[in-house]
Amino acid sequence: MTAREATDNSNATTHPADSETVEWTHTVATSRFLRGLTALSLGIFGGGALAVGGGAVFLTAKLLLAGQYTVALAILLALVFAAARFAPQHLALHRSWLSKSNPFYEGTKKLGWRGFVVASLFGLGVLWVGLQFGGVGFFVVVFGILAVPIVIVSALTSEGELDAESHALTYCGTDVDLSALDSFRRVGLGTLVVYQLSFVSGAMSARTPRFLVVPATVDESIRQAVETGVALDSPEYDPPNRAVQATLAAFGIGCLAFGGLLLTVEPSSSNSDAGIVLVYGALVVGVFGFIFLSLAVRSG
Question: Which residues contact 162 (CB under 8 A, 6 or more apart)?
Fold first, then answer.
């Protein structure tokens, strides 16, 4: 992503010097890069819809050419009934929950019909490539294109406000006490800067962010505020509950070990779906393992 694109895509606002307040937004609504990643995942759903619709049209045309008008009419009526049944629910979801809870909503609106069609064609191609591998290969290809961009978008999405005068930082809706910082690390990532924060013992909670991803345009202000927070005397905090940490860590390690065990199991059936189930189960258990380990670290 170029510097010009970063300027166009990341909204950063600096208030007058006396308030020393900085705000920034780097989301799918403001970043073409993040919208592009979102389009990759959306393309899988669009490609699936194209595959189903195209298959239905092909089958109907084939039946009509074969003179089986009754079956073709039945398929058309089934499609119309399905559309009439699910379209109102989809629109209601789109207008209510999706518009308020889905972080990708604003970005998908800006894709437009042309962008969505291109993404759907890409998704259709991914489905075709996955079919060439078959079985577990299909699941890995499709799940990878579906999940990896979502993870990256979630990691790089950033909104926040810094009041340097009062050392108050709000990051993605969570207040961060800069005076509780023990140390930090800072790494440049193109037009973004990633901060790894370390807090004094007992200061962290499950909601406390360990990483900050901010646009380079506000990096100087964030760096100065973080350095000032590290230099400040930290307030006293209750010591962390080591028993809770050990329990969470044990659950996390157990989940990861069980997920790894699932990947080593040979399916007892020759059906390729058995392998897909094992891989899916390993991924789900592995995700829970990382969640438990993350909670164990954050509770310290």
Answer: 21, 22, 23, 168, 169, 170, 218, 221, 222, 225
